[in-house]
Amino acid sequence: MWAIRLPSALAALVTAWLLYRFGCYALRSRFVGTFAALILATSPGFNGTHVARFGDYDALLTLGLTAATLSWYHYAQERQAKQLWLGAGWFSLALLTKSAAAVVLLPAVAAGLLALPGGRWVVWQWRTYLSILLSLIPLALFYILREAAVPGYLAAVWFNDWYGRFSQHIVTMNYPWWIYAQRLVFPGLLTWSWLLPVGCWLGFTSGPAPRRQFAQFASLHILVFLVVISLARTRLTWYSAPIYPLAALLCALGLQFLSQQARQHWHWPIPVVMSLLTVTFAVPASLLLQHERTRWQVEKADPMLHYGYQLPPLLATQPKPRTVTIVQEERYNAGLLFYASVLRAGGIQPVIIKRADSSSQ
Question: First-to-last CA distance in the chain?
Answer without folding.
Answer: 34
